[in-house]
Fold:
Amino acid sequence: MLVARELTKEFQSGTHQLTVLRDVSFAVPQGAFVAIVGPSGSGKTTLLGLLAGLDTPSRGTVILDGVDLGSLTEDQRAKLRGEKVGFIFQSFQLIPTLTALENVQVPLELRGESGASGRAVELLTRVGLRDRMDHFPSQLSGGEQQRVAIARAFSNRPRILFADEPTGNLDANTGGRIVELIEELNRESGTSVVLVTHDLALAGRAGRMVRLADGVVVEDTGSGMRDAGSGDAPGRSSRVERHPDGSPHPASRFPVPDNEEVA
Structure:
């Protein structure tokens, strides 16, 4: 579903060049639930933006559902996201002048889909907000706003969902319910989930954990497939991509495909 190959992201800071990500490579199968973890400044959110096509790498390749994002224009990437990608932001990013129902409807209406209202009602009911659909974001709690954001992210039936610290602004109990909801939608729809978090307890609920440090992948644990029949339990180390000091790493059970395999 997703291939990241030797992703590098650099920024110019005055006279210095800052490398946020360096040669990050991994692949995500369809239906996988993957958590990307690491301390603040490790490059997690930057990586998520590159994977979702919200930003472009300085070097390297992102292939999303067989499409090389680097070969697309900005408008083409936006169209691809609208068709195949859902995104949940830590700060919700709801439109304040629209009700919960309207916030979920808007992406569907922009796509020209019929039955947008019915689909929005269905999703808000699924996330437990049937009685709050006519409320504006300012009238909703943080947990309710995040549930609206989740409903919106799933409105286009995405092939892959990216979530940036989806519980970061929530208390532990509410955050737990949000993760359960994402897990449920992942199981039922087969949508791949790539979630960024600094919370190791939350990350442990995913089938696979990719750990970043200083802009490189230092550990890749598990398959990402929660019901995989391989016999590997979550928590068993399946790959170490690269150590910060650049030392060699073991081969992966999930090697990054080459160009011919992707094609």
User: Anything to note?
Assistant: Residues 2-262 form a domain with the Rossmann fold fold (CATH 3.40.50.300). Helices lie at 44-51, 74-84, 100-110, 116-126, 142-153, 172-189, 200-203, 259-262. The mean pLDDT is 82.
